[in-house]
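[User]
Um, tokens okay?
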Amino acid sequence: MASAPSIPPDPVRRRLFSELSWPEVAEGAARTGSTVVWPFGAIEQHGPHLPLSTDALFAERVCTAVLERLPHDLPIWQLPTQSLGFSQEHRGFAGTLSLPPELLLGLVVAVGSDLAAAGFQRLVLLNGHGGQIALLEVAARQLHAARPDLAVLPCFLWRGPEGIAQRIPEPERQRGLHAGLAETSLMLHLAEELVGPGRQADGPLQEPPEGWSLEGQAPCAWLTRELSSSGVIGDPAGASAELGQALFEALVEGWRRRLESLLNSDWPSGTQRG
């Protein structure tokens, strides 16, 4: 009886950390410049029309697409997405699950320490939830202090890639903080079946004092229930799959360029690719 034809390994799936064997992990970690990307999201309300997993879905889909576009010989792997995050500002809306900040800090240090012990040299935290940007930056510093041999790069999905802001008109560019035009459009592109009806504008009617903002420069602490009855902060009414596709392409290409530049560098000193 003829043997079944062998199926060549999928180079993209071989970048999923959880599907490797331990000898493959050891071999990969030993490569100079070995890098792991860890997508972060949240399980939190996203208005009446978007799923709780919005931030996690975005981080994972962008990360996977980025790794698909990178040259297959680069030493980079993707960890399973950390879907539960720090979402305290969205409490009061059913479905929001928020980890205590110290638990998330400890998680990053524990997992990162294991990766460093295995021999990996870089860890990229690709975070899709704006409410935990500062927390993951603190976690990155704590991890690097505990394991100076591991470079840690805390990144926010929407911050960095070029071509994002230009595609979002004002006032939504400044006011669309949550479940607004950008997030709804991106979900229409990635998973239209998860987008429900009832896409109406909501959010603060009173402008912050001059020189202050809800996010960005000179921000203030806020809770969603103080700003919105629906959980939406912005206006998703004009969202479209076409805009979502343009945003997705900008996100993927922006992070692909940054990761490829990192992988082809010797930063930090002594991690020249091998």
In short: Helices lie at 22-29, 54-69, 101-118, 133-146, 172-175, 181-191, 224-227, 241-263.
